[in-house]
Amino acid sequence: MLLSKIIQNIPGLKIKGDTEIDIVSVTFDSREVKKGSLFVALKGSTSDGHNYIPVAVASGAVAVICEAPGNVPAGVTTLVTESSHNALGIAASEFYGNPSEKIRLVGITGTNGKTTTVTLLYQLFTKLGYKCGLLSTIANFIGEKRFEATHTTPDPVQINALLAGMADEGCEFCFMEVSSHSLDQKRVAGLKFTGAIFSNITHDHLDYHKTFIEYIKAKKSLFDNLTSDCFALTNIDDKNGLVMVQNCKAKIHTYSCQSPADFNCRVIENSLDGMLLKMGSKEVWTRFIGTHNAYNLLAVTSAAELLGASTDEILVALSSLESVSGRLEYIKGGEDITAVVDYAHTPDALENVLKTLHDSAAGREIITVFGCGGDRDKTKRPEMAQVSAQYSDKIVVTSDNPRFEEPEAIIDDIKKGFSVSERARALFITDRKEAIRTAIALAKPGSLVLIAGKGHENYQDIKGVKHHFDDKEIIEEIFNLKTQSDAL
Q1: 338-342 β-sheet, strand order
Q2: Whole-number pLDDT of residue 484
Q3: Average pLDDT over residues 158-179
Q4: Using CA atoms, how far apart are residues 427 and 429, in angstroms rounded to an integer?
Q5: Cβ contact 385:414 at 8 Å
Q6: pLDDT at position 336 over 80
Q7: Both 81 and 105 in a single domain?
């Protein structure tokens, strides 16, 4: 594709050199440059792509988009912009033929519930007979073809390549998680959304955004950029639900489990086997439990109606939808002991899960295993302790993804959230496998053992290396060994 076409919609470019040249790829990674590439130099939190411009040119880049042209060798077409991140999104979209305009793209943002909501929308519309795409934390899908996910929201080149693949395969819809990081880094620049959903917002990622206000602003930018032909669906039970859609040009719709709204839901029955919900004027049984899942399912059905599906078809399909991997996932052991694996890694998410277990299984002992990730928001560590103490009978604090922090230091931060009496109910075991083993050993018949924080993840990130570690595998191994031991 000609460079002139790729850059035609990037605002404010200062151009030096020939733009009527063929471009074979768009990339921001100097290691992926080949002869005829357009290289986009991005400033990141740990490295600056401007330092790699000479390497990119030596590898064959024929044009460079950058914010400072000092490193660009003579004779290379140079395109100077105020925001390389924004330019990359627009260039990648154009290079792949603006695929988001050929498919109905729905984005969801919020602290909790993103993965469940987009995955259930993907499941729902697939059951309704549509070919769909999915961009999520767990995996990306083009129809039924699975592609591993490395980030909640991929980079702009990956996003557009996947969307182009969806359009080529005849997908009519794509449901996409949109993280606050991706919004701040303009990874969705150049995309045309059909609609956007807001789930909720609680304190998270303050290691990156620094303040809660900046975190809100990042989330809100998804709605700020919607056009008048889009829909904006927001949870008005969250105190920032209406803040998200202030000055939004899209048609605004609201959903609520507590207040009058365009779409409403009420929990009639809630047990470990599922929930009976009243959606609008109709009742439906689902395989999900917990108020937080009532909100997720309400967001799913509301969005589906806005996308044109009939209410009756939605509710029939809804009753057959299944839990998302690593979200309130049950593993039964002997002696009526049940392990529950969940991705909850924020105070709000952990509280939602523990309240759900507490309310759905009244009288059963709850043992909670959790930790906190390293090199991330430290303010939530003592808060996680407080939540676990409020709803758990016993607690085992352990390692999560320590990254470049010492696990013991993270655990020390968590300890600060316990009172003296609460600390007496807690054990502190750095080795996560040993922590899970101890929690199951402590369980008695009827106990629920919640293993929180990692959910679908199958690794532990330690000192920059991802070691294989799957909570579900560990639990099943321990249950199997326990069964064998009991049989002897």
Answers
A1: 329-332, 338-342, 448-452, 366-370, 394-397, 426-428
A2: 63
A3: 97
A4: 6
A5: yes
A6: yes
A7: no
Tokens encoding 317 = 């399909």
Stretch 398-418: mean pLDDT, rounded?
97
Burial class (CB in 10 A: 0-12, 13-18, 19+), 55: middle
**DSSP of 316-363:** HHHTT--PPTTSSEEEE-STT-EEEEE---SHHHHHHHHHHHHHHTTT
Q: Structural domain tally of the chain?
A: 3
**For the stretch 450-463, what's the b/e string if a residue is b when 16 or more beta carbons lie within 10 angstroms of its beta carbon?**
bbbbbbbbeebbbe
196, part of any domain: yes
Q: 244 and 347 share a domain?
A: no
Residues whose CB falls within 8 Å of the CB of residue 310, separated by 6 or more in sequence, listed in order? none
Domain end position, chosen among 275, 291, 318:
318
Domain boundary among 95, 128, 157: 95
Distance CA 79, CA 66 (A): 6
The CATH number given to whatever domain includes residue 11 is: 3.40.1390.10
Residue 410 CA from chain centroid, whole number: 23
Number of H helices, E strands in the chain: 17, 24
Residue listed under structure tokens 């590439």: 37
Whether the Cβ atoms of residue 359 and residue 325 lie closer than 8 Å to each other: no
Give yes or no for residue 307 having a pLDDT over 90.
Answer: yes
| DSSP bridge pairs for 450 | 340, 368
pLDDT at 236 over 90: yes
Question: How far apart are the C-alpha atoms of 431 and 437, rounded to whole Å?
Answer: 10
* CA 138 centroid distance within chain: 8
DSSP letter for each residue of 80-98:
E-S-HHHHHHHHHHHHTT-
- The yes-or-no verdict on residue 369 having pLDDT over 90 is yes
340 and 452 within one domain: yes
Interatomic CA distance for residues 286 and 123, integer angstroms: 14
